[in-house]
Fold this sequence. Notes:
Keywords: Hydrolase. GO terms for molecular function: hydrolase activity. The protein has helices at residues 3-27, 36-41, 86-94, 110-118, 152-160, 178-181, 184-192, 197-220, 247-269, 279-287, 329-347, 356-368, and strands spanning 50-56, 98-99, 103-106, 128-131, 171-175, 225-229, 274-277, 301-303, 307-313, 319-321. The chain is of the alpha/beta class. It has a domain at 45-277: Rossmann fold, CATH 3.40.50. A hairpin with a 3-residue loop joins strand 8 (301-303) and strand 9 (307-313). Helix 7 crosses helix 9. The longest helix is centred in the N-terminal third of the chain and has 25 residues, at 3-27.
Amino acid sequence: MSRLRIALLVMLGGLLTATGLMLVGAAMPDGLGRPFAAVAAGTEPSSGRIRFAVLGDSDSQSYHDTQMLSNPSLRGGTWRATTWQWTEVLARLRGDQVDLGEWGAWGTGKYRARFDKVFGIVARTPAKDDYRYDFAASGAWCNQLLGSPQRQAVNLVDLMDKEPQAWKGGIVLIRIGINDVGGHGVLDELSRDPKASHPLALINACVDAIGETIALIHKRHPQTNVALVGILNNADWAVEFDSWQSASAIANIDAGMDVFDNGLRKLAAENRHVVFLDDRAWFRSLWGERDEQGRPLYKTVRLSPGWAITNSSGDDPHNSVLSDGHAGVVWNTLWAQHLVTSLNAAFGLNLTPITDAEVIGFLQPSFAAKHQ
C-alpha cells in the first residue's frame, strides 16, 4: 500500500472518529439536563440577577430532592411539603434578585461523571433534584470540594467558565465541615483536650481545602465573591444534651471550633472578595447556649403569631431541628433573612432585606399544617 493511500486512510479514520465524538457529545446530556453543545455555547441570556452558587453538605442541599432524599421520613417527614432548606427559602423570597439556577434533575453517577470530564463535558455527581448552581450534597466532607468523586468546586468552576461575565460580582457560598469535625467522637476528643491531634488535623485539612477552593475560583473568576460560613457546634444539638455537662468540656469544644472559624477568618482577611459568616454567633443570638456548668439552658425563639420554637428535635416546626438532625424550617427561614442582610453589608449589594412580615407569611403554611 502506498504512503499516500495510508495517509489518506489515517486522515479519513480521524475525521470519522472526530465526527462520531461530536455526534455523541451533541446527543448526550452533559449531566446538567441539557445537550452539551447548548451549554458549551453559553447561550443563556443574562437575567440581571446575582448568580449564586453553593458548595457544601446536607445543610445546603435542597430538602425537596427526590433522588438522593427519596425516603419520605427525611427532611420533615409528614411536614416535608412545608419544610424548606435555606436555599429553597431564598429562591422563593428573593428569586427575582438571586439566581441559584434552574430547578431540575442535575448530575449523574460518579463513573459517568468521570467519563464526562474526560470528554470535556461539564461533569457533576451525585444525581439529585436541586438548583443548577447548588452543588452541595448530603454526606460531603471537605475533601469533596476538590477530590473525587464529587469534585464540587472543580465542576462548579467548569460550569462558571461557560459564562464568565455572568459570574462577575456573583457569589459562591461555602458551608462545609460538620461531617468532618461535628461527630460525637471528634467532639469528645476535643472535650478532653482542645489541642488533640486528630481533631486538629481534621480541622486544618478542612481549612486548607477551603483555601484551595477559593484559590481555584479566583484564579479563573477573580471578581466572584465568596462567602465562608463558619462551623456549628453539635454540642448544641438536642441529641447531645446529656454529653459534656461541664464548663471545661464545653470550653474545650468551643476552642476547637474556634480554630476552624479563625482559619476561615484568616482566609477572608486576605481577599476583599471573601467574607466570613459566624454561624455559632448567629445561633447563640437566637437560641443561646449552655450554662456555666455546661448544662443545656437554651432560649425559646418567639415569633409574633405566638409561635414558640425551642432548641429541640422533631419534624413539627416548633422544633429548631428536624428529626433527621437538619435545620428546621424556622431555622432556615431566619437564616436566609440573616444571610441577605450579611451579604448586603459584606459586598455592598442592594438585595431587598427579608422583612419579619415576610418571614411570618412564609412560615404560615408550616404552622397551619395539620398532622396526625
